[in-house]
Each structure stands twice: as C-alpha cells, then as structure tokens.
Amino acid sequence: MCSAEILKSPTYPCFVLDNFLNSRKKSSVKYQSRVDKFKEFKEKLRVEDVKEGMQIDVRDTEGIWCSGTVKSILTSEKSSLLLIHFDKWDSIYDEVFQIDSPRLAPHGFYTSRSILTYKLPLNDGNRQAEVISHHN
After folding, report:
1. 106 and 47 in contact (C-beta within 8 Å)?
2. CATH fold for the domain made of 55-134
3. Alpha carbon 77 to chain centroid distance?
C-alpha cells in the first residue's frame, strides 16, 4: 500500500476498536451462557434408572405430552428400548422407544405443568387448533 492509500483509508480511534472487541467478548460470553443453560435443561430431560412399572412422560404422535408406564425394557450393548403404555389409552397405542428419545422425559416434567392441550388441524380441513383439555 502506498502512503497516499494509507491516508485515504478510514482511521478509527483506539477506544472504538476496544469497544468493538469488548462487545464481541461480551456477546461470546452471553452465547456460552445460553449454551450452558440449554445443556443443563437437556440433562434434566434425560430419563435415567428406568425400571418396569415406572411412570414416565411421553409425547404422543400428535405432539401431546401424556403420562405413560414402562411395560418392559430390552437392553443391548448399544442402547435400551422401552415399551411404553400410554396411561388411560388402549394397549394398541403402546409404543417402543429408544431410551434417549426426545419424546421421553422424567415423570411430571411436562405433565405436571398447567398447560392447555391442543389437537391441531382437523381432517375436515379446519385449520384452527381445538382445545382438548387443561392439565392441572
């Protein structure tokens, strides 16, 4: 770069560059803090020490969290499979899940919350969600 080009290039006072670098550091710290909180949340969702007859939260195929019961466990070297019965449902709806499935959570993690349960778009073309019940 010749001296004429250097004179034409924008110059910034040192404090502007320092502020820029500090804001990037703060942003990085905030991001890492959010990542750490998410990891903590994911750990709380981990289903551990599973036994037959144990209650568990399970998300059905409609996306609704229900209470379920572990009917049986099949363990191999690589993973464990759980046969889950959806409480208050017929056994034809029982499902097999891997133990690390995102559709499983410790009992009460979701089902103990006071939330509305929705049934999303109906087969008749109705695009509005229908409130099924309110969990307490």
Report:
1. yes
2. SH3 type barrels. (2.30.30)
3. 26
